[in-house]
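Fill-in record for TMD11 protein.
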Amino acid sequence: FHIGEREEKCIIEDLPSDTLVVGNYKVQRWDIHKHDFLESAPGLGMFVSVSTPSGEVLLSKLYGPQGTFSFTSYLSGEHIICFQSNSTRLLAIAGSKLRIHLDIRVGEHFFDESAVQAKEKVDEVHVRLEHLIEQIQHVSKEQDYEREREEKFRKTSEETNSNILWWAIVQTLILIFVGIWQIKSLRDFFIAKKLV
């Protein structure tokens, strides 16, 4: 994604609790002379901050033009990951665009393929099995979290449907009452004018 040099950009990640999140990023600065993004942005760093659904700051740190950050969510919900450059240019001068390449991996414990190849076959199977078990646990956590969200949504829907039903009943009673009142008023009017 692209941002201005002094602009802050935030991404929302919906995470279950106890989930490892690892992010890799790389910043490129726009070069006016080449009309292209430079391969790297030396001297430019990124402030990375992560907030929980309750607003608590999990991570707030300054990194270089490329780096890796990680955190573990302890609450389930929408976590906000924000990026802002550490540019000290004045706002009027800082018209440069930045391109940020971002890769976020959620709930994945990475295994080193080169370390696996160096070990014996039994160790390789053991490491792959542990990795699969971690992935199964992550999928299970995701499913539990989705079940919680679905249950909350269902309760909200049922409450809304109940409120709509009561509102319809109240409207019907009001219409009946107004109709009876109008008939009575018209009847009294006709009797007063001696039309009936």
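KEY FINDING: Residues 91 and 111 are 43 Å apart (CA to CA).
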